Amino acid sequence: MKQFIISLIIIVTFVSCKTQHKTLEHVVTKTDSTSITRLQEKIDCQEKIIANLKVSLESAREEIVNLQSETSRHEIIYDTDAAINPQTGQYPKQSEAFLYNKKNLDKSYQEYEKRMSEYNQEIQSNLKKITSLEDEVEMLKNENRQLKTETKSSFGINVKARIVCFIIGLILPTIYILRKRIKHKMFVV
Which of 62, 75, 70 is nearest to 101 (CA)? Predict the structure, then answer.
């Protein structure tokens, strides 16, 4: 056994001391010069297109700014040589002109549209409320009519019942009193 262990140690020592082998790989890539030339031409063409689009975009932006800032003019010129109009308290107009900015007009128009939309919604809401109130009023009128007819019919029944009770109330005591008198006269005679 001793020999086996010694031989094992010797084998392990020689095997582990062995020099390591290095592997080198070389990758060789070959490219075709014509494909490079074609790709370079495509890149140049795309760069020209991009440059043209940038120029077009910039001119479009400038045109938009110009269109947005367009103005129109409306001017009023009064005739100061003429007499003042007593109804308006101003001189008569000789000519009239105003100055409007298209951008401001568009903004004013959008605000106007927004307000009109809000007003229409409010009108619709109020119309629904009015319809609801009209329905409620109609329901209350019908209920009132029913109560009036019930009151009239119950009033007629109540009056008749009261009259009958009143008559019975007068007749019964009268009959009682008359009977007593009759009985009393019988005993007195």
Answer: 70
